[in-house]
Amino acid sequence: MKLRNITLLLLLAGLVITSCNKDETEPYTLKFIHIMDNESSEVTVNQNANAIGTYNIYLSSVQFFEPIKVAYTITAGNGLTEGVDYEVISSAREITFLPGIYDMPVRIRWLAHTIDETKNNTITINLVSADNPSYTIGLPGPGQKQRSLTITKVK
């Protein structure tokens, strides 16, 4: 019985020692800011909607200690009129990520109004810049995906 316990103890000690890895991988250190809704850069809203849409801007980074400001624009197509089809609730065109905050909302109130399907019935939220140049705007890579979010009002 003692021999079995000693063997088991030695086996467990061997497993613990071999599970330690001095060559641990580096943590993911890319820093970027992107916007999406349900993992997509394009979403729709019904023309009859009377609702507030919340579209989050996300910061992907290791822990940071200084606020990060991000500027964005909101551009409407020629088929939508502010005050008739929508209202932008987030009046500032800049958001600030405080330490420990990794997503910030842009809110748009959608108003029920019939659209003209022959016109451009989109609103695009486009991330423009960050005050810290070490942050990439959009997903890393040549395509800079999720640099903007397009919301289309549909019938």
Automatic annotation (TrEMBL):
Residues 1-22 form the signal peptide. Keywords: Signal. This is DUF4843 domain-containing protein. It comes from the Bacteria.
